[in-house]
Amino acid sequence: MGNLLLLIALTFEIAFAIYCVATKQNHKKIKNWIRIAAFIAFVMLTLSSVIEWSFRWVMLAILLFILAVTAAVSLIRNKTNTKKYKTSSIVWKSIMMMIASVFVLAPAIVFPQHNSPKVTGDYEVATAAYTYVDKNRIEEFTDKGDNRFVNVEFWYPKKADEKYPLLVFSHGAFGIKSSNASTYTELASHGYVVVSIDHPYHSFFTRSEDGTVAMINADYNNEINDMNKDGIYTKEELYGAIQKWMELRTDDMNFVIDTILDKAKNDNNPIYQQINTEKIGVFGHSLGGAASVWLGRERNDIEAVVNIDAPFFSDLVYKKEIDDFVARDEDFKTPLLNIYSDDVWGQLDSNSTYVANKLNNEHFKDASTVHFQGANHLSLTDLPLFSPILANYIQGGKADIEQYYCIETENELILQFFDDKLKGSGHFTSKETY
Questions:
Q1: What pLDDT, on the 0 to 100 scale, is given for residue 2?
Q2: Cβ atoms within 10 A of the Cβ of 18, count?
Q3: pTM of the model
Q4: DSSP label at residue 315
Q5: What SS3 class is residue 272?
Q6: Which 3 state secondary structure label does DSSP give 319?
Q7: How crowded is residue 23: how many other Cβ atoms within 10 Å of its Cβ?
Q8: I want to staple 375 with a disulfide (CB 3.0 to 4.6 A). Which of 183, 185, 251, 401 is the partner?
Q9: Are 339 and 306 in contact (CB under 8 A)?
Protein backbone atom coordinates (compact mmCIF):
# COMPACT_ATOMS: atom_id res chain seq x y z
CA MET A 1 0.00 0.00 0.00
CA GLY A 2 2.83 2.42 0.86
CA ASN A 3 4.56 1.78 -2.46
CA LEU A 4 1.29 2.28 -4.35
CA LEU A 5 0.51 5.58 -2.61
CA LEU A 6 4.05 6.82 -3.22
CA LEU A 7 3.77 5.94 -6.91
CA ILE A 8 0.46 7.83 -7.12
CA ALA A 9 1.89 10.87 -5.31
CA LEU A 10 5.02 11.05 -7.47
CA THR A 11 3.05 10.53 -10.68
CA PHE A 12 0.61 13.29 -9.74
CA GLU A 13 3.34 15.78 -8.83
CA ILE A 14 5.22 15.17 -12.07
CA ALA A 15 2.09 15.25 -14.22
CA PHE A 16 0.72 18.38 -12.56
CA ALA A 17 4.08 20.16 -12.90
CA ILE A 18 4.18 19.29 -16.60
CA TYR A 19 0.58 20.55 -16.99
CA CYS A 20 1.43 23.85 -15.31
CA VAL A 21 4.57 24.34 -17.39
CA ALA A 22 2.73 23.47 -20.61
CA THR A 23 -0.13 25.92 -19.87
CA LYS A 24 2.16 28.48 -18.21
CA GLN A 25 -0.23 28.82 -15.26
CA ASN A 26 -0.05 27.97 -11.54
CA HIS A 27 -3.51 26.34 -11.39
CA LYS A 28 -3.54 26.93 -7.64
CA LYS A 29 -7.30 26.50 -7.27
CA ILE A 30 -7.26 23.09 -8.94
CA LYS A 31 -4.36 21.96 -6.72
CA ASN A 32 -6.22 23.13 -3.61
CA TRP A 33 -9.27 21.04 -4.48
CA ILE A 34 -7.06 18.02 -5.23
CA ARG A 35 -5.35 18.36 -1.82
CA ILE A 36 -8.70 18.46 -0.03
CA ALA A 37 -9.87 15.44 -2.05
CA ALA A 38 -6.67 13.55 -1.19
CA PHE A 39 -7.23 14.04 2.54
CA ILE A 40 -10.88 12.98 2.28
CA ALA A 41 -9.87 9.89 0.28
CA PHE A 42 -7.27 8.97 2.95
CA VAL A 43 -9.88 9.29 5.71
CA MET A 44 -12.36 7.16 3.75
CA LEU A 45 -9.76 4.46 3.06
CA THR A 46 -8.86 4.40 6.76
CA LEU A 47 -12.49 4.23 7.95
CA SER A 48 -13.18 1.41 5.49
CA SER A 49 -10.07 -0.47 6.75
CA VAL A 50 -8.43 -0.53 3.33
CA ILE A 51 -5.74 1.36 5.19
CA GLU A 52 -5.28 -0.17 8.65
CA TRP A 53 -4.48 2.70 10.99
CA SER A 54 -1.12 2.35 12.72
CA PHE A 55 2.15 4.22 13.33
CA ARG A 56 3.10 3.78 9.66
CA TRP A 57 0.43 6.26 8.52
CA VAL A 58 0.84 9.02 11.11
CA MET A 59 3.21 11.27 9.18
CA LEU A 60 1.20 10.93 5.97
CA ALA A 61 -2.00 11.83 7.82
CA ILE A 62 -0.36 14.93 9.32
CA LEU A 63 0.94 16.10 5.94
CA LEU A 64 -2.39 15.54 4.17
CA PHE A 65 -4.26 17.31 6.97
CA ILE A 66 -1.95 20.36 6.84
CA LEU A 67 -2.20 20.54 3.04
CA ALA A 68 -6.00 20.18 3.15
CA VAL A 69 -6.43 22.89 5.82
CA THR A 70 -4.11 25.25 3.93
CA ALA A 71 -6.01 24.57 0.71
CA ALA A 72 -9.39 25.12 2.37
CA VAL A 73 -8.26 28.45 3.85
CA SER A 74 -6.99 29.53 0.45
CA LEU A 75 -10.28 28.65 -1.23
CA ILE A 76 -12.37 30.37 1.46
CA ARG A 77 -10.34 33.55 1.18
CA ASN A 78 -10.81 33.24 -2.61
CA LYS A 79 -8.06 35.72 -3.37
CA THR A 80 -7.16 36.28 -6.96
CA ASN A 81 -3.79 34.78 -7.68
CA THR A 82 -1.51 37.72 -8.37
CA LYS A 83 1.72 35.75 -8.33
CA LYS A 84 3.47 35.73 -11.67
CA TYR A 85 3.97 32.30 -13.22
CA LYS A 86 7.55 31.00 -12.93
CA THR A 87 8.65 27.67 -14.32
CA SER A 88 11.44 27.40 -11.73
CA SER A 89 8.95 27.90 -8.88
CA ILE A 90 6.63 25.19 -10.23
CA VAL A 91 9.49 22.71 -10.64
CA TRP A 92 10.99 23.51 -7.23
CA LYS A 93 7.67 23.12 -5.39
CA SER A 94 7.02 19.83 -7.18
CA ILE A 95 10.45 18.48 -6.19
CA MET A 96 9.94 19.51 -2.56
CA MET A 97 6.54 17.83 -2.46
CA MET A 98 7.99 14.62 -3.93
CA ILE A 99 10.71 14.61 -1.26
CA ALA A 100 8.08 15.17 1.43
CA SER A 101 6.01 12.28 0.01
CA VAL A 102 8.97 9.91 0.21
CA PHE A 103 9.66 11.01 3.79
CA VAL A 104 6.11 10.64 5.13
CA LEU A 105 5.54 7.32 3.35
CA ALA A 106 8.87 5.80 4.44
CA PRO A 107 7.34 4.04 7.50
CA ALA A 108 4.65 2.45 5.33
CA ILE A 109 7.28 1.29 2.85
CA VAL A 110 9.80 -0.04 5.40
CA PHE A 111 7.04 -1.57 7.56
CA PRO A 112 4.32 -2.41 5.02
CA GLN A 113 0.75 -3.24 5.86
CA HIS A 114 0.44 -7.04 5.67
CA ASN A 115 -1.90 -9.89 6.47
CA SER A 116 -1.25 -11.77 9.68
CA PRO A 117 -0.40 -15.49 9.44
CA LYS A 118 -3.43 -17.69 9.95
CA VAL A 119 -4.67 -18.50 13.44
CA THR A 120 -6.39 -21.88 13.61
CA GLY A 121 -7.35 -22.30 17.28
CA ASP A 122 -10.75 -21.78 18.89
CA TYR A 123 -9.66 -19.42 21.66
CA GLU A 124 -9.72 -15.65 21.31
CA VAL A 125 -6.24 -14.41 22.26
CA ALA A 126 -5.50 -11.59 24.70
CA THR A 127 -2.17 -10.02 25.63
CA ALA A 128 -0.70 -8.35 28.70
CA ALA A 129 2.74 -6.89 29.43
CA TYR A 130 4.58 -6.67 32.76
CA THR A 131 7.94 -5.70 34.18
CA TYR A 132 9.56 -8.09 36.66
CA VAL A 133 12.39 -6.81 38.90
CA ASP A 134 14.97 -9.35 40.08
CA LYS A 135 15.99 -8.32 43.60
CA ASN A 136 18.79 -10.88 43.58
CA ARG A 137 20.69 -9.42 40.63
CA ILE A 138 22.31 -6.03 39.97
CA GLU A 139 22.15 -4.75 36.39
CA GLU A 140 25.58 -5.32 34.84
CA PHE A 141 25.04 -3.08 31.83
CA THR A 142 24.70 0.12 33.86
CA ASP A 143 26.64 1.65 36.74
CA LYS A 144 23.57 2.79 38.68
CA GLY A 145 23.42 -0.19 41.02
CA ASP A 146 19.82 -0.91 40.00
CA ASN A 147 18.33 -4.37 40.16
CA ARG A 148 18.01 -6.28 36.92
CA PHE A 149 14.56 -5.91 35.33
CA VAL A 150 12.98 -8.13 32.69
CA ASN A 151 10.03 -7.13 30.54
CA VAL A 152 7.60 -9.87 29.53
CA GLU A 153 4.44 -10.11 27.46
CA PHE A 154 1.77 -12.79 27.70
CA TRP A 155 -0.40 -14.23 24.94
CA TYR A 156 -3.19 -16.30 26.47
CA PRO A 157 -6.78 -17.52 25.96
CA LYS A 158 -9.05 -14.57 26.72
CA LYS A 159 -11.90 -16.71 28.04
CA ALA A 160 -10.21 -19.42 30.06
CA ASP A 161 -12.21 -22.50 30.96
CA GLU A 162 -9.35 -24.63 32.31
CA LYS A 163 -5.63 -24.52 33.07
CA TYR A 164 -3.12 -24.43 30.21
CA PRO A 165 0.56 -25.30 29.75
CA LEU A 166 3.08 -22.48 30.10
CA LEU A 167 5.44 -21.76 27.18
CA VAL A 168 8.40 -19.40 27.62
CA PHE A 169 10.08 -17.77 24.60
CA SER A 170 13.49 -16.11 24.31
CA HIS A 171 14.29 -13.87 21.31
CA GLY A 172 17.40 -13.84 19.13
CA ALA A 173 20.62 -11.85 19.48
CA PHE A 174 19.14 -8.48 18.46
CA GLY A 175 15.48 -9.44 18.73
CA ILE A 176 12.50 -8.20 20.68
CA LYS A 177 9.85 -10.11 22.58
CA SER A 178 7.32 -9.79 19.74
CA SER A 179 9.69 -11.32 17.16
CA ASN A 180 7.52 -14.44 16.76
CA ALA A 181 4.14 -12.98 17.73
CA SER A 182 2.32 -15.06 15.11
CA THR A 183 3.66 -18.21 16.78
CA TYR A 184 2.55 -17.09 20.25
CA THR A 185 -0.90 -16.17 18.93
CA GLU A 186 -1.34 -19.53 17.21
CA LEU A 187 -0.27 -21.40 20.34
CA ALA A 188 -2.48 -19.33 22.65
CA SER A 189 -5.46 -19.89 20.36
CA HIS A 190 -5.05 -23.61 21.00
CA GLY A 191 -4.91 -23.33 24.78
CA TYR A 192 -1.43 -22.28 25.88
CA VAL A 193 -0.22 -19.40 28.02
CA VAL A 194 2.80 -18.03 26.17
CA VAL A 195 5.19 -15.55 27.77
CA SER A 196 7.89 -13.90 25.69
CA ILE A 197 10.88 -12.23 27.32
CA ASP A 198 12.74 -9.06 26.41
CA HIS A 199 16.32 -9.50 27.60
CA PRO A 200 17.28 -5.87 28.40
CA TYR A 201 20.46 -4.70 26.63
CA HIS A 202 20.41 -7.89 24.52
CA SER A 203 17.09 -6.83 23.00
CA PHE A 204 17.20 -4.16 20.27
CA PHE A 205 14.97 -2.14 22.56
CA THR A 206 12.59 -2.79 25.42
CA ARG A 207 10.04 -0.61 27.18
CA SER A 208 9.12 -1.13 30.83
CA GLU A 209 5.72 -0.56 32.42
CA ASP A 210 6.86 2.85 33.66
CA GLY A 211 7.86 3.90 30.13
CA THR A 212 11.61 3.44 30.59
CA VAL A 213 13.34 2.38 27.36
CA ALA A 214 16.55 0.35 27.29
CA MET A 215 18.40 0.06 23.97
CA ILE A 216 20.81 -2.68 22.95
CA ASN A 217 24.22 -2.43 24.64
CA ALA A 218 26.94 -1.27 22.23
CA ASP A 219 29.62 -3.64 23.57
CA TYR A 220 27.30 -6.64 23.34
CA ASN A 221 26.28 -5.56 19.83
CA ASN A 222 29.94 -5.49 18.78
CA GLU A 223 30.62 -8.87 20.38
CA ILE A 224 27.80 -10.51 18.43
CA ASN A 225 28.83 -8.85 15.16
CA ASP A 226 32.44 -9.96 15.62
CA MET A 227 31.79 -13.56 16.68
CA ASN A 228 31.78 -14.94 13.12
CA LYS A 229 34.60 -12.74 11.80
CA ASP A 230 38.00 -14.32 11.32
CA GLY A 231 40.81 -13.06 13.51
CA ILE A 232 38.68 -11.21 16.07
CA TYR A 233 38.21 -13.89 18.72
CA THR A 234 40.27 -16.93 19.53
CA LYS A 235 38.17 -20.04 20.12
CA GLU A 236 38.86 -19.71 23.84
CA GLU A 237 37.73 -16.07 23.88
CA LEU A 238 34.60 -16.97 21.90
CA TYR A 239 33.83 -19.71 24.40
CA GLY A 240 34.09 -17.19 27.23
CA ALA A 241 31.76 -14.78 25.43
CA ILE A 242 29.24 -17.57 24.83
CA GLN A 243 29.24 -18.49 28.51
CA LYS A 244 28.64 -14.85 29.44
CA TRP A 245 25.73 -14.46 27.00
CA MET A 246 24.15 -17.71 28.09
CA GLU A 247 24.47 -16.90 31.78
CA LEU A 248 22.46 -13.71 31.34
CA ARG A 249 19.87 -15.37 29.11
CA THR A 250 19.31 -18.42 31.30
CA ASP A 251 19.28 -16.31 34.48
CA ASP A 252 16.54 -14.17 32.92
CA MET A 253 14.53 -17.22 31.86
CA ASN A 254 14.93 -18.95 35.20
CA PHE A 255 13.87 -15.75 36.98
CA VAL A 256 10.78 -15.34 34.78
CA ILE A 257 9.71 -18.96 35.17
CA ASP A 258 10.21 -18.90 38.94
CA THR A 259 8.36 -15.59 39.21
CA ILE A 260 5.40 -16.95 37.25
CA LEU A 261 5.31 -20.15 39.31
CA ASP A 262 5.27 -18.07 42.49
CA LYS A 263 2.53 -15.80 41.16
CA ALA A 264 0.48 -18.83 40.16
CA LYS A 265 0.37 -19.68 43.87
CA ASN A 266 0.00 -16.20 45.36
CA ASP A 267 -1.38 -13.78 42.74
CA ASN A 268 -5.08 -13.62 41.84
CA ASN A 269 -4.37 -12.23 38.38
CA PRO A 270 -6.46 -14.46 36.03
CA ILE A 271 -3.48 -14.93 33.72
CA TYR A 272 -1.48 -16.70 36.41
CA GLN A 273 -4.47 -18.66 37.65
CA GLN A 274 -5.02 -20.29 34.24
CA ILE A 275 -1.48 -21.71 34.11
CA ASN A 276 -0.86 -25.41 34.59
CA THR A 277 2.44 -25.19 36.46
CA GLU A 278 3.09 -28.90 35.94
CA LYS A 279 3.38 -28.44 32.16
CA ILE A 280 6.16 -26.10 31.02
CA GLY A 281 7.89 -25.78 27.66
CA VAL A 282 10.59 -23.38 26.46
CA PHE A 283 11.49 -22.24 22.99
CA GLY A 284 13.49 -19.52 21.31
CA HIS A 285 15.15 -18.23 18.18
CA SER A 286 18.94 -18.04 17.69
CA LEU A 287 20.55 -17.13 21.04
CA GLY A 288 17.13 -17.65 22.59
CA GLY A 289 17.00 -21.15 21.15
CA ALA A 290 20.44 -21.90 22.58
CA ALA A 291 19.29 -20.65 26.00
CA SER A 292 16.16 -22.81 25.76
CA VAL A 293 18.22 -25.95 25.12
CA TRP A 294 20.41 -24.95 28.07
CA LEU A 295 17.35 -24.77 30.33
CA GLY A 296 16.27 -28.15 29.02
CA ARG A 297 19.39 -29.53 30.65
CA GLU A 298 19.24 -27.44 33.82
CA ARG A 299 15.64 -27.62 34.97
CA ASN A 300 13.69 -30.74 35.86
CA ASP A 301 10.33 -29.01 35.29
CA ILE A 302 10.94 -28.34 31.58
CA GLU A 303 9.09 -31.01 29.61
CA ALA A 304 9.67 -29.86 26.02
CA VAL A 305 12.12 -27.61 24.13
CA VAL A 306 11.96 -26.09 20.66
CA ASN A 307 15.25 -24.80 19.28
CA ILE A 308 14.85 -22.44 16.33
CA ASP A 309 18.08 -22.05 14.32
CA ALA A 310 20.58 -22.08 17.19
CA PRO A 311 23.75 -23.92 18.22
CA PHE A 312 23.71 -26.09 21.32
CA PHE A 313 25.87 -23.76 23.40
CA SER A 314 24.98 -25.82 26.48
CA ASP A 315 26.75 -28.79 24.92
CA LEU A 316 29.95 -27.13 23.72
CA VAL A 317 33.19 -27.95 25.51
CA TYR A 318 36.37 -26.04 24.72
CA LYS A 319 39.46 -28.25 24.48
CA LYS A 320 42.63 -26.23 24.88
CA GLU A 321 44.86 -28.99 23.51
CA ILE A 322 43.12 -28.83 20.11
CA ASP A 323 41.99 -25.19 20.43
CA ASP A 324 38.49 -26.08 19.32
CA PHE A 325 35.06 -27.16 20.48
CA VAL A 326 33.84 -30.70 21.06
CA ALA A 327 30.40 -31.96 22.01
CA ARG A 328 29.49 -32.66 25.60
CA ASP A 329 29.41 -36.36 26.45
CA GLU A 330 26.00 -36.58 28.11
CA ASP A 331 22.56 -37.55 26.85
CA PHE A 332 19.95 -34.83 26.41
CA LYS A 333 16.78 -36.30 27.85
CA THR A 334 14.18 -33.52 27.42
CA PRO A 335 12.02 -33.85 24.26
CA LEU A 336 13.54 -31.53 21.66
CA LEU A 337 12.49 -30.16 18.28
CA ASN A 338 15.14 -28.45 16.13
CA ILE A 339 14.04 -26.14 13.30
CA TYR A 340 16.82 -25.02 10.96
CA SER A 341 17.11 -22.56 8.08
CA ASP A 342 19.68 -22.86 5.29
CA ASP A 343 21.93 -20.50 7.27
CA VAL A 344 22.40 -23.05 10.06
CA TRP A 345 21.81 -26.26 8.11
CA GLY A 346 24.84 -25.48 5.95
CA GLN A 347 27.07 -25.10 9.01
CA LEU A 348 26.22 -28.28 10.90
CA ASP A 349 29.21 -30.16 9.48
CA SER A 350 31.57 -27.25 8.79
CA ASN A 351 31.46 -24.94 11.82
CA SER A 352 32.70 -26.33 15.13
CA THR A 353 30.29 -24.02 16.98
CA TYR A 354 27.62 -26.46 15.78
CA VAL A 355 29.55 -29.63 16.61
CA ALA A 356 26.93 -30.70 19.19
CA ASN A 357 24.13 -30.08 16.65
CA LYS A 358 25.46 -32.64 14.19
CA LEU A 359 22.77 -35.08 13.15
CA ASN A 360 24.97 -38.04 14.12
CA ASN A 361 25.32 -36.84 17.75
CA GLU A 362 24.08 -39.88 19.67
CA HIS A 363 23.36 -37.80 22.75
CA PHE A 364 20.49 -36.15 20.82
CA LYS A 365 19.29 -39.26 19.00
CA ASP A 366 15.70 -38.77 20.17
CA ALA A 367 15.47 -35.16 18.97
CA SER A 368 13.29 -34.27 15.98
CA THR A 369 14.99 -32.11 13.35
CA VAL A 370 13.49 -30.28 10.39
CA HIS A 371 15.07 -28.09 7.72
CA PHE A 372 13.24 -25.26 5.94
CA GLN A 373 14.93 -25.30 2.55
CA GLY A 374 15.32 -21.84 1.05
CA ALA A 375 14.80 -20.12 4.41
CA ASN A 376 17.20 -17.60 5.88
CA HIS A 377 17.81 -17.10 9.60
CA LEU A 378 15.12 -14.43 9.95
CA SER A 379 12.60 -16.37 7.87
CA LEU A 380 11.83 -18.25 11.08
CA THR A 381 10.60 -15.01 12.69
CA ASP A 382 7.85 -12.53 11.74
CA LEU A 383 10.32 -9.84 10.65
CA PRO A 384 10.16 -10.57 6.88
CA LEU A 385 6.40 -9.93 7.09
CA PHE A 386 6.68 -6.90 9.35
CA SER A 387 9.58 -5.36 7.40
CA PRO A 388 10.84 -7.20 4.29
CA ILE A 389 13.34 -4.41 3.56
CA LEU A 390 14.88 -4.60 7.02
CA ALA A 391 14.96 -8.42 7.04
CA ASN A 392 16.59 -8.59 3.61
CA TYR A 393 19.16 -5.98 4.61
CA ILE A 394 20.12 -7.77 7.83
CA GLN A 395 20.43 -11.21 6.25
CA GLY A 396 21.97 -10.07 2.98
CA GLY A 397 19.15 -10.81 0.58
CA LYS A 398 15.65 -12.21 0.14
CA ALA A 399 15.00 -15.80 1.16
CA ASP A 400 13.88 -18.24 -1.52
CA ILE A 401 11.09 -19.70 0.61
CA GLU A 402 7.61 -18.13 0.57
CA GLN A 403 7.34 -16.36 3.92
CA TYR A 404 3.72 -17.19 4.80
CA TYR A 405 4.31 -20.85 4.00
CA CYS A 406 7.46 -20.81 6.14
CA ILE A 407 6.06 -19.16 9.27
CA GLU A 408 2.68 -20.93 9.14
CA THR A 409 4.31 -24.35 8.68
CA GLU A 410 6.77 -23.58 11.48
CA ASN A 411 3.89 -22.56 13.75
CA GLU A 412 2.01 -25.75 12.91
CA LEU A 413 5.03 -27.93 13.73
CA ILE A 414 5.68 -26.17 17.05
CA LEU A 415 2.00 -26.51 18.00
CA GLN A 416 1.93 -30.22 17.15
CA PHE A 417 5.17 -30.82 19.07
CA PHE A 418 3.96 -29.10 22.24
CA ASP A 419 0.54 -30.75 21.92
CA ASP A 420 2.25 -34.14 21.91
CA LYS A 421 4.79 -33.50 24.66
CA LEU A 422 2.76 -31.29 27.03
CA LYS A 423 -0.85 -32.28 26.40
CA GLY A 424 -0.44 -35.87 25.24
CA SER A 425 -2.53 -34.99 22.21
CA GLY A 426 -1.63 -36.67 18.94
CA HIS A 427 1.75 -38.09 17.99
CA PHE A 428 4.29 -35.65 16.62
CA THR A 429 5.86 -36.58 13.30
CA SER A 430 7.59 -34.40 10.73
CA LYS A 431 9.36 -34.50 7.44
CA GLU A 432 13.08 -33.75 7.38
CA THR A 433 12.72 -31.00 4.77
CA TYR A 434 9.99 -28.42 4.13
A1: 83
A2: 13
A3: 0.89
A4: G
A5: helix
A6: strand
A7: 10
A8: 401
A9: yes
